[in-house]
From TrEMBL:
Pfam families: TetR_C_24 (PF17932), TetR_N (PF00440). The keyword Transmembrane does not apply. This is TetR/AcrR family transcriptional regulator. SUPFAM superfamilies: Homeodomain-like (SSF46689), Tetracyclin repressor-like, C-terminal domain (SSF48498). Gene3D superfamilies: Homeodomain-like, Tetracycline Repressor, domain 2. Residues 22-41 bind DNA. PANTHER family: HTH-TYPE TRANSCRIPTIONAL REGULATOR RUTR, HTH-TYPE TRANSCRIPTIONAL REPRESSOR KSTR2. Residues 1-59 form the HTH tetR-type domain. The keyword Repressor applies. Keywords: DNA-binding, Repressor, Transcription, Transcription regulation. It comes from Geobacillus jurassicus.
Length: 204
C-alpha cells in the first residue's frame, strides 16, 4: 500500500503540484482511507520527502556502480553518468520534476537529508573530474568544482524539455553533451587542430 500511495502521489504532484493536491485525492486514487495514509506517513510533506529521497537513492546507487568500475577511464565514467541521468528521464521523469519543482515545500529537517544526498552525488562527480585531471585525461587548468556544477546544470534541466521518443535518442543526446563538455563548440582546423584564432585545443 505504501508503494501505491507513493505512485499515486507522484502522478498527482507532477500534474497538479504538491500544494494543490490533497491527502484525500491521494487515498481516493488507490481506493484507500486517510487512516491507511497516516499509518505510513505522518503528513503529506513526509510523503513528498519519501519521493525525493527514493529518487536520489536510485541515482546514487547507479552512480556508485559506475564510479567503482576500475576498468573504465574517467572519460568513460563521465559519459556513463551523463547517460544514466538522461536515460532515467524515460522512467523517472515525473519523480525528477517533483524533486526539482516541489522540494521547496519541505521543512529544514527533511531538506537536510536531501541536501546531504545531493552533496554525495555532486562530490563523487567532482572527484571524478579531479581524478581525470590527475590522470591527464582532462585539462589541468580546470576548476573541478565549477565544472561539476556546470555538468549538473546541463543534465538536470533536460528533465524539463527532453522527449526520449522524439527525434534525438538518449544515446545521441549523451554524445552531444559529452562532445560539448569535452570539446566545446569551437571549430577545429583539419590541418592544425587549432580553433578560431589559431589557438590549439587540448583535452589534456
Amino acid at each position: 500500500m505504501k508503494e501505491k500511495l507513493r505512485e499515486a502521489a507522484i502522478e498527482l504532484f507532477e500534474r497538479k503540484g504538491f500544494k494543490e493536491t490533497s491527502v484525500q485525492e491521494i487515498v481516493e486514487a488507490v481506493g484507500a482511507t486517510k487512516g491507511a495514509f497516516y499509518y505510513y506517513y505522518k503528513s503529506k510533506e513526509e510523503l513528498l520527502c519519501d519521493i525525493c529521497v527514493s529518487y536520489l537513492d536510485d541515482l546514487l546507487r547507479q552512480q556508485e556502480h559506475i564510479i567503482q568500475d576500475v576498468g573504465a577511464s574517467c572519460t568513460d565514467k563521465l559519459r556513463a553518468i551523463v547517460y544514466m541521468v538522461i536515460s532515467n528521464i524515460r522512467t523517472r521523469k515525473k519523480s525528477a520534476r517533483i524533486f526539482f519543482r516541489e522540494m521547496r515545500h519541505l521543512a529544514d529537517d527533511h531538506l537536510a537529508e536531501i541536501r546531504a544526498k545531493r552533496r554525495v552525488f555532486r562530490k563523487r562527480y567532482e572527484q571524478l573530474i579531479e581524478d581525470g585531471i590527475a590522470r591527464g585525461e582532462f585539462k589541468p587548468s580546470l576548476n573541478a568544482e565549477m565544472i561539476t556544477f556546470g555538468l549538473l546544470g546541463i543534465t538536470n534541466w533536460s528533465y524539463y524539455w527532453f522527449q526520449p521518443d522524439g527525434g534525438v535518442s538518449e544515446e545521441e543526446l549523451t554524445d552531444i553533451y559529452v562532445d560539448f563538455i569535452l570539446n566545446g563548440i569551437r571549430a577545429q582546423s583539419e590541418k592544425t587542430g587549432a580553433g578560431v584564432g589559431g589557438s590549439p585545443i587540448s583535452l589534456k
